[in-house]
Amino acid sequence: MSDLFFDYDLPEHLVAQEPAHPRDAARLLVARRDTGTLEHRVFHDLPDLLRPGDLIVLNDTKVLPARVIGRRAKTGGKWEGLFLHENPSGEWELLAQTRGFPEVGETLIVEPGELKLVLTGRTTDRHWLVRPDPPGTPADLLARHGQVPLPPYIRKGRARTDDQARYQTVYAAHTGSVAAPTAGLHFTPELFERLTATGIRTARVTLHVGLGTFAPVKTQDPTAHPIHAEWCEVGPETVAAVVETRARGGRVVAVGTTTTRTLESAARGGTLVPWRGDTSLFIRPPFNFQVLGGLVTNFHLPKTTLLLLAQAFAGTDLLRAAYREAVAREYRFYSYGDAMVIL
C-alpha cells in the first residue's frame, strides 16, 4: 500500500483558527474525476457546480458541549476531560488528563462547581469512568456545564465564547457528537434557498461523530488500521429520495465523510435500505461505492482514515494533486478550513 496518498507536509499557518464569515465564503477546490482537473471556486458557487436533479445528503448530528474542565477536590489540581459516552449503568466514560493518578472514589469538580463527577474506575490511565452528581442525562448536564470540544489545533492559545454556534451546522438536530461534521459548516440558509431554486434537493442522515474519527493510523499498512464504530441512521424518507434521484439520472452528493460512511453502511447489501445501528465500515482504496456520486469534504489531517475515505472516492492521483494544489494556493485546512468537492 506504499502508493497510497497518506501523508503530507502542511505549513502551520495554513491550519485555520477561525471559520469563514459568512460560512459560505470559504474557498472551494473542485476536483473532477472524469477529467482529472482542478478548479478554484468559492463555496457559495456550489449550486452552479451541481445539476438540477442532484441530491445533497447532510449529517444532521448536533455537537455536545463535551469538554469539561475543573479541579480535583482532594488536591485542588486542575483536570480536563472529554465526554465520550454513557454506559448502560449510567457511568460516563471520559478521555481525561491531570497530574498524578486520581484514586477511585475521588471527586472531580467541574467548573464553576455545581457539577461533581465521582471517579468509579479506569479502563486506561486516560480513560476514566465517572458518575455525575447530581445525576442527569449527558445532554442536560453538559449543556449547562460543558464547553465546545474544539480540536487542540484550534483551541490552543485562544478561547471564543461564540464557538458554540460556529462549531455547529445550521441544520444540526440530533445531539450526540463530540466533533462537528465539518463539511457541513459551510452551508447557510441562503445557500439552501439557492440550491432549492436550482432544482437540487436535500436529505438527511444522522451519524454521531466519535473521537475515533480523528485517530491517527499507526499500523504499517494503513488499511489494517482497527476502525472505530459510530452510531448512525438512514431513514425511509432519505432512502426514497436517493432511489428517486438515481432513477432520474441525478447524483447523490454526500456532505462529509460521516454522511458517506452512513449511506454506504446502509447499502452494503447492494441496495440502500433504512438502517440504524453501530457501523464499523472502513472505506479505503479500493472500495466499491454503492450510493455516492459526489463528495463535499474539508481538507483532512495526514495519516487518518478520513484521508483514505476521500482517496477511495477521488482516486490517489487526483487527491494527491488536489492537496498539493491546496497547499500551494494556501487554502485553509482542517475543521475551520476551506472545502473541496469531488465530482
UniProtKB/TrEMBL annotation:
One of its GO terms (cellular component) is cytoplasm. The keyword Transferase applies. Keywords: Cytoplasm, Isomerase, Queuosine biosynthesis, S-adenosyl-L-methionine, Transferase. GO terms for biological process: tRNA queuosine(34) biosynthetic process. It holds the Pfam family Queuosine_synth. One of its GO terms (molecular function) is S-adenosylmethionine:tRNA ribosyltransferase-isomerase activity. Its main location: cytoplasm. SUPFAM superfamilies: QueA-like (SSF111337). Pathway: tRNA modification; tRNA-queuosine biosynthesis. It comes from the Bacteria. InterPro entries: QueA, QueA_dom1, QueA_dom2, QueA_sf. It is found in: Cytoplasm. Its EC number is 2.4.99.17. It catalyses: 7-aminomethyl-7-carbaguanosine(34) in tRNA + S-adenosyl-L-methionine = epoxyqueuosine(34) in tRNA + adenine + L-methionine + 2 H(+). Transfers and isomerizes the ribose moiety from AdoMet to the 7-aminomethyl group of 7-deazaguanine (preQ1-tRNA) to give epoxyqueuosine (oQ-tRNA). Belongs to the QueA family. Monomer. This is S-adenosylmethionine:tRNA ribosyltransferase-isomerase. It comes from Fimbriiglobus ruber.
